[in-house]
Amino acid sequence: MAQKKDKEPKNTYTIYEDNTMGRVTIANEVIVAVAAIAALEIDGVAHLGGGITLDKASRAGERALSRGVKAELEEGKIHVRLIVYLNYGCSIPETCTKIQERVKSTLENMTGIDVAEVRVSVADIVTQ
């Protein structure tokens, strides 16, 4: 299970350690970016907090993404909070459930770290 190590740089987590091959770490910025992109791929999501769209998410840094996504590792599990803006006409409960499922499965598949929760806050509805 992933654990935060004292000797690692701040916001970096060990996801794999092998005495013969070495250690693999992942920065919190990567977790935030993966969560952002996964959420933005869902139909009905206009953008995240801070105006982050799918086109901008892969190029945005942690500071820009932090307006719409927060991720923390607690007791070996990821906790994600998202602020989303949805397109007018989409089903809010359905869209939010899809966001939660996609973010959870994508993070777990890409990092190997269990996701404890994905909180989604709908900040507004966007008309096109």
Topology:
Elements: E1 12-18, E2 22-27, H1 28-40, E3 45-48, H2 54-57, H3 62-65, E4 69-74, E5 77-87, H4 92-111, E6 114-126
Parallel strand pairs: 5-6
Antiparallel strand pairs: 1-2, 3-5, 4-5
Helix pairs in contact: 1-4
How would you describe this protein?
This protein is α+β, with helices and mostly antiparallel strands and 128 residues long. Helix content is 32%, strand content 37%. The protein is built from 4 helices and 6 strands. Strands 3, 4, 5 and 6 form a 4-stranded mixed β-sheet that branches. A hairpin with a 2-residue loop joins strand 4 and strand 5 (77-87). Helix 1 runs antiparallel to helix 4. It is elongated and about 55 Å long. The N and C termini lie far apart (43 Å). The model has no long low-confidence stretch (mean pLDDT 87).
